[in-house]
Amino acid sequence: MNALDQRIVLVTRRTRLEDLVVRFNTIEQARFYVEHLGADFSDYAEEHRVYQLAVQRAEATLGRFGRVQRLDRAFLANYMFAPDTLVVVLGQDGLVANTLKYLKDEQPVIGVNPDPGRWDGVLLPFQVKDLERLIPETLAKRRPAKRVTMAQASLSDGQELYAVNDLFIGPRSHVSARYEIHLGEYVETHSSSGLIVSTGLGSTGWFQSLLAGAAAIGGHALPESVDAMRGQGFAWDADHLQFTVREPFPSRTTQVGLVFGQITREHPLTLVSQMAGYGVIFSDGIEADFLEFNAGMKATIQLAEREGCLVT
Predict the structure, then answer these.
(1) 294, 284 in Cβ contact below 8 A?
(2) How much of the chain exceeds pLDDT 70, in percent?
(3) Which end of the chain is least crowded, N or C, by CB within 10 Å?
(4) How confident is the model at residue 12 (pLDDT cuts 50, 70, 90)?
(5) pLDDT digits (tens, 9 = 90+) for 146-203
(6) Greater pLDDT, 212 or 264
(7) For residue 253, what are the CA distances in angstroms to 155, 179, 250?
(8) How confident is the model at residue 4 (pLDDT cuts 50, 70, 90)?
């Protein structure tokens, strides 16, 4: 393929400084606000400088291998990725995860850490200087990659939402979620703070806080199979998801038996909303991108048919 024919999308994000400028209109006003609170504005400025330099260097390198388009994370949900597009994400980790769910099945993603001194980058194994070597190897399919299992929420009206880390199903605000839950032959009615459904990739995040809370309450007496997931989660390419109900409440009409378990292809999780107008489903912590989940709506939570693909 001619370099001019190869499409490359460089996914970027706004820095904290850029967010402050959007809020306060100018850098000077942003500086005044931050320093008035006693914080160090130079940290914001340095982060911005390093990130913009990484963007410029990445674009220059990628431009030698194809036509490069820079895409801000705000437009991910509306962008149509062609299947032959090579995707490079200039981190952090959350940006990599958020990008994966909008791609085609097993479309390769290269995660690049723009500032190794600032970010650990579990999903960012490379630096900008590595791109000159990585791009031709990836295009020639000589680079190894990790498969990433994703979750999918499908509503009875046809709407769908994918997750790379986790799904939240529950109330929009701090009230009780009401729903009927089905897993295999088990059915219960719940009043809770909602459910978290975790993938293997997300199992070292939100999922861990739920396990830690359960262990503390139970005096660290968790079942062996559950305790094995503490700290390390489970495999990124696992053939299952894990669900956890947050703060289930027992009453005359609600039960608390079906509050933790696995979702497999053979046994998806089904929920029927009993929330009048405040139920939501969102993924990967992006609350602005949600599905309404209100009275009578049925949601099927399952493993997605497509998988993410991270170049390693």
Answers:
(1) no
(2) 98
(3) N
(4) very high
(5) 999 999 999 999 999 999 999 999 999 889 999 999 999 999 999 999 999 999 999 9
(6) 264
(7) 25, 11, 8
(8) low
Q: Are strands 108-112 and 86-90 parallel, antiparallel or unpaired?
A: parallel
Phi, psi (5° rounding) for residue 120? -70, -50
Could you tell me the residue ranges of all domains in the chain?
3-143, 151-304
Sheet architecture: strand order including 186-192: 160-163, 151-155, 298-303, 269-273, 177-183, 186-192
> Could you tell me which residues come within 8 angstroms of residue 19 by beta carbon, excluding any fewer than 6 positions away?
none
Q: Write out pLDDT tens, residues 87-99.
A: 999 989 989 999 9
The edge-to-edge listing of strands for the beta sheet with 308-311 is 67-72, 7-12, 86-90, 108-112, 308-311, 145-148
| Distance (Å, whole) CA 241 – CA 162 | 13
Q: Which overall architecture, per CATH, does domain 3-143 show?
A: 3-Layer(aba) Sandwich (3.40)
DSSP annotation string for 69-108: EEEEGGGGGG----TT-EEEEES-HHHHHHHHTTSPTT-E
Burial class (CB in 10 A: 0-12, 13-18, 19+), 269: buried
How much is the pLDDT for 137? 96
The CATH code for residues 151-304 is 2.60.200.30
Indicate the pTM of the whole model. Answer: 0.87
What residues are paired with 271 via a beta bridge? 181, 299
Among candidate residues 244, 255, 267, the one with its CA nearest the CA of residue 195: 244
Contact 101, 129 (CB under 8 A): no
Amino acid identity of 101? K
Tell me 140's DSSP state.
Answer: T
Tokens 């904290």 identify what position?
A: 16
Residues 6+ apart with CB under 8 A from 168: 194, 195, 196, 280, 281, 282, 283
The two beta strands, 7-12 and 67-72, are parallel
